[in-house]
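BACKBONE GEOMETRY TOKENS:
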Amino acid sequence: MNEMASVVEAMADEKPEFEPLELLKRLEAQAQQPAPAILPDKLAWRDIRQEPALFQARGGELYEPHLSDLASAIGREGRLDPVEVIQIGPQAVLIEGHHRMEAYRRAKVIEGIPVVYFKGTVEDAVAESGRANSRAKLPMPLRERNDYAWKLVKMGRHSIKETAIAANISERQVANMRKVAKALGDAAFGYDRWMPALQASKGIAPLTWEPDEIEARKEAQAQEYAERLSKTFYTKLMNNPEIAARALALHFGDKLGEVFRELEGYVGVTEDEEESDF
């Protein structure tokens, strides 16, 4: 284990009030309890425990247009794709599928929710929640992926590569987060979001608008446009990527290159790691 990993782990051990890490430890202790011999492939809503502070990669925010689409699908089909859970002792805990669980709740579907079980440790399940959200139909914005990676860095349980894969960002970015965590020391735990932590590490005084306030405004504007696209085209663009690409090329013209560079951040790029992993 290198010096950076030791520093991060020491920071985590010294900060019992860091909620995600404390929750992880409690669940690891619960995992020592016996689990049912047979795990059912359907569960009641109340029997699926939700711990968004640890397993909600999107920071607890649910996207209303996506919930609306899921509610329509429940109306048509009765059930959605299985949610992913981990069996921790006697209890099933949700890893991925928070939107589906909320859609079921709103539709008053309280029994027979399809589940699949994650086979691995609780620590592995934390990373899986990020990977699963990266594969989901509703992509995580870069800001949310950075914030999720920042949470994993502060927990000090995952390697650079594991964190990069879980959050779908570059390993170089994760390495930079570790350097910021080291520079901030204990103060790192006071920053839930990556951008304010980065600003603080550089000694940059807050602007009239905090960086995440600016990001929130951009995100709200983007969501408004996304809702308009959804209402106008529903799934036509999603189901016809070639036509969608041609339409965007025609619409943006010589600005298409700039749009493409912005989109790269939402796809995720793997770069060579600049420092050792653990």
About this structure: The chain has one domain: 3-201. Strands lie at 42-43, 48-49, 83-88, 91-96, 113-117.
